[in-house]
UniProtKB/TrEMBL annotation:
GO terms for molecular function: ATP binding; poly(A) binding. Residues 28-64, 585-611 are annotated as: Disordered. Keywords: ATP-binding, Coiled coil, Cytoplasm, mRNA processing, Nucleotide-binding. One of its GO terms (biological process) is nuclear-transcribed mRNA poly(A) tail shortening. The keyword ATP-binding applies. Residues 420-558 form the Pan3 C-terminal knob domain. This is PAB-dependent poly(A)-specific ribonuclease subunit 3. PANTHER family: DEADENYLATION COMPLEX SUBUNIT PAN3, PAN2-PAN3 DEADENYLATION COMPLEX SUBUNIT PAN3. Pfam families: Pan3_CK. Residues 48-64, 599-611 have a biased composition (Polar residues). It is found in: Cytoplasm. It comes from Paragonimus heterotremus. Its main location: cytoplasm.
Length: 611
C-alpha cells in the first residue's frame, strides 16, 4: 500500500454521529457494509469504511461495487444522512498542511480529473496555452527550406518562413509584396518576427535622417495594444531591394479576419444573387438572409473597442502619428480577446515625410476604419464592410445590440468622430469592465505563479534527497556514510516515494502520491508512515517531521563538506600561486646576480688588460 489508511475523525457533528449509530444495525457474522467514508463510528454495531478501502490509482481510497450499491440503498431509505456543509467542509486532523479542503475522498474515480487536483498543479488550460506558445517559438523548417534561406539576416539567425516565399503576396494595406519570417535574436534573447518588404527598384536602400530618428523612437516604445517595433535594416540577401522590419513575435495569434470574418455561411448571406458565371442562384440559397445568429456578444465588442481605442490614443497622442493599419488582417488576437495593432510604423519609417500636411485627415480616417473593423467582426464577414451592405449590417446590429453601441458605430462610419478624446469618452463606461477582466486575469496568473513556486520547492527537495541517497565516498574515509544512520532512513523513504509496486510486483506510478508525500515532508507533518527495507526484514515507523529533520541535517553535512573542499582548493591555489611568485622572484634574483657577476668579471678583465 502507498500509505496507511487515513482515519477521518472529528468531521461529523455529534448529532450526525448519533443519528447514524441509531439508524443502522449490523447483524453478527455478516460483513459490514460501508456507512460513509467520512464517518467516525466504532463498536460492534458500527462500521469503519476504512476496513474495506483499497489504495486507488489516484492515491485516494475507493470501494467495491457491492459496497457502493449498499450505500445507495441505505441513502434511499434514509439510513444515511449527509452532512449539511455550509460553504467549505473541514479536513481531517493532521492533513491541513498538505491537503486542500474538500471531500476529495468521496469523489468517484471518473470525477478525479485534472480539475480536482488543480490545487497541486498549474491550470490545465493555461499550461496548454503556454506549451503551445513554446512550441510555436521553437518550431523550425525542413532542411530543403533552410538551404533556400540565408544563414543569417542581419543580426538575426535561424530563419523560419511563416508565409510562402516563392510568390510574395502583395499587401492590400501597404501595396507592396511582404513575407514574414520567425528568427532568433541574440540581442533580445528571444524569437522575433521579421517582415521583409520588397521595395521598388528606384527606392533608396537607406533611411532618411528623420526616418532613422523615428525608427529609433518607435523601438523604445511599448504598449499592450500595439505590437512592438524593434529594428529596421536593408538587405540584398535575396538578390533584390528588400527592407526588413523587426517586430515582437506573438506566438499562437490570429488575425481578426481569421477569427471572426472567415465564416462561409456569413459570407454567403451577404453575397450577390448571381453565381460567378452570371447565372441566377436558386431561391433556396437566398431565402435565408443575414441573421443575428452567432454574432459576437456585446461585451466582447465593447472590449475590442476599448482595447483599440487604447492603442489609437497611444499612437495619436504619444507618437503623434496616424495608425493607418486598422485592417482585419493587421489586428492580431491572442489569448482569446487580447487585441494588438500589428505593423504600425512600417509606412512611417520607410516612407517618412518630415512634415505631413494630411496628418489630421489620416487620424480622422482611423476612426472610420475602426468602425468598419468592429462592424465586420460583429457581423462575422468582411462583406459587411462594403458600402452596398451598410443598411443590412446596421439592421443586424440594431436587432442584436444596444442603441448606445449602434449609435457609436454609426458615428464612426459617418466620420462624426474626429478626435480620440471623443472616442475615449464614449467608451469610458465600459473601461471598468475591461479593467476588471485584466485584474482578474492578473490575479489568476499570480495564483498560478505561486503553484509554480510550489513545484520549484518540491524540485529542490528532490534534489536534496537524490544528493544524499546512495552517495559513494571516493576518499574512503567513510564509505558507509550513505548506508548508515539518517541516510539509510532517507534511502528507505526514497523507495517509499518513488519505488512503489503493486501486488504483481509491477511498478506502481502515482504522481499524486509522490507530490502529497513530499508536501507532508515539507510541512513537517506529525503523521506516521511505515518504511520497509527491500528485503522486508526491517519495518520502521517514523513521522514526516523526522524525515524532514534527517534530510536537512544530511544535506547540511554535504554543504559543509562542499564549502570546506572549496576553501581547501582555494588555499591550495593561493599556496601554489605564492610558490610560483617566490620561484619567479628567486629566478629574477639569480639572473640579476649572474648579470652582476658578469659585469664584475668584465670590469676586472678590462682593468687587467689596461695594466
Amino acid at each position: 500500500m502507498l500509505s496507511s489508511p487515513q482515519t477521518y475523525t472529528n468531521i461529523f457533528p455529534t448529532s450526525i454521529k448519533s443519528n447514524a449509530q441509531a439508524s443502522f444495525k449490523v447483524d453478527p457474522g455478516v460483513n459490514p457494509p460501508l456507512i460513509n467514508p467520512g464517518s467516525d463510528v466504532s463498536g460492534d454495531e458500527t462500521v469503519s469504511a476504512l476496513n474495506h478501502s483499497q489504495p486507488g490509482l489516484s492515491g485516494s481510497q475507493y470501494y467495491s461495487s457491492r459496497q457502493l450499491e449498499t450505500t445507495r440503498d441505505l441513502q434511499v431509505v434514509g439510513a444515511l444522512k449527509a452532512v449539511n456543509w455550509i460553504l467549505v467542509p473541514p479536513v481531517p486532523e493532521g492533513t491541513a498542511a498538505h491537503m486542500r479542503t474538500g471531500r476529495v475522498h468521496e469523489l468517484k474515480s471518473r470525477a478525479c480529473s485534472d480539475r480536482v487536483f488543480s490545487a497541486s498543479y498549474m491550470d490545465h488550460e493555461l499550461k496548454q496555452v503556454l506549451h503551445n506558445k513554446i512550441q510555436a517559438c521553437l518550431f523550425t523548417c525542413d532542411e530543403a527550406t533552410k538551404e533556400k534561406l540565408p544563414r543569417n539576416l542581419g543580426a538575426y539567425t535561424d530563419l523560419v518562413p511563416l508565409e510562402t516565399m516563392h510568390q510574395p503576396r502583395t499587401s492590400v494595406t501597404f501595396g507592396l509584396p511582404c513575407v514574414c519570417f520567425k528568427a532568433w535574436s541574440p540581442r533580445f534573447n528571444r524569437p522575433m518576427l521579421l517582415r521583409r518588404v520588397l521595395l521598388p527598384v528606384e527606392h533608396e536602400a537607406a533611411l532618411s535622417p528623420d526616418g532613422y530618428l523615428l525608427a529609433k523612437h518607435l523601438s523604445e516604445l511599448d504598449h499592450p495594444a500595439v505590437v512592438g517595433f524593434r529594428d529596421v535594416f536593408f538587405t540584398n540577401a535575396f538578390n533584390d531591394n528588400s527592407a526588413v522590419l523587426v517586430y515582437e513575435y506573438t506566438p499562437c495569434s490570429s488575425t481578426l479576419q481569421q477569427a471572426h470574418m472567415s465564416d462561409p455561411m456569413k459570407l454567403t448571406s451577404f453575397s450577390s444573387p448571381f453565381n460567378i458565371n452570371r447565372t441566377v442562384r436558386p431561391h433556396s440559397s437566398l431565402k435565408n438572409g443575414p441573421s443575428d445568429l452567432g454574432m459576437l456578444p456585446e461585451s466582447t465588442i465593447w472590449s475590442y473597442l476599448v482595447q483599440l481605442t487604447h492603442g489609437i490614443r497611444f499612437i495619436h497622442q504619444q507618437v503623434q502619428r496616424a495608425c493607418g493599419v486598422l485592417d482585419p488582417t493587421k489586428v492580431l488576437i491572442q489569448d482569446g480577446t487580447h487585441l494588438r495593432i500589428n505593423c504600425f510604423g512600417l509606412k512611417d519609417v520607410l516612407f517618412h515625410r518630415s512634415e505631413d500636411p494630411h496628418l489630421t485627415e489620416d487620424q480622422a480616417a482611423d476612426f472610420v476604419q475602426l468602425g468598419k473593423l468592429i462592424i465586420g467582426a460583429a457581423c462575422g464577414t468582411s462583406e459587411a464592410l462594403q458600402n452596398a451592405h451598410r443598411t443590412t449590417s446596421f439592421n443586424l446590429l440594431q436587432r442584436t445590440y444596444t442603441p448606445d453601441l449602434v449609435s457609436l458605430l454609426r458615428n464612426l462610419i459617418c466620420g462624426q468622430v474626429t478626435d480620440v478624446e471623443q472616442l475615449v469618452r464614449a467608451t469610458a463606461p465600459f473601461v471598468y469592465d475591461q479593467l476588471t477582466n485584466v485584474c482578474d486575469h492578473s490575479d489568476f496568473l499570480e495564483r498560478q505563479l505561486f503553484l509554480g513556486m510550489e513545484c520549484d520547492r518540491l524540485f529542490r527537495m528532490v534534489c536534496k534527497l537524490q544528493s544524499i541517497v546512495e552517495r559513494s565516498d571516493r576518499n574512503g574515509s567513510n564509505p558507509d556514510w550513505s548506508e548508515t544512520g539518517d541516510r539509510y532512513m532517507l534511502k528507505l523513504f526514497r523507495d517509499f516515494v518513488f519505488h512503489q509496486t503493486d501486488h504483481l510486483s509491477a511498478p506502481f506510478l502515482d504522481l499524486a502520491h509522490i507530490i502529497t508525500t513530499l508536501n507532508k515532508v515539507e510541512a513537517g507533518s506529525s503523521e506516521r508512515l511505515c518504511l520497509v527495507s527491500r528485503d522486508s526484514q526491517n519495518v520502521i515507523i517514523v513521522t514526516y517531521a523526522d524525515i524532514k529533520q534527517w534530510l536537512d541535517a544530511s544535506f547540511a553535512h554535504l554543504v559543509d563538506r562542499h564549502r570546506q573542499s572549496r576553501c581547501d582548493i582555494r588555499l591550495a591555489q593561493h599556496r601554489e600561486a605564492r610558490q610560483q611568485q617566490q620561484q619567479a622572484a628567486s629566478m629574477i634574483q639569480t639572473e640579476a646576480r649572474l648579470e652582476g657577476d658578469e659585469q664584475t668579471s668584465g670590469a676586472n678583465l678590462l682593468t687587467s688588460e689596461n695594466s
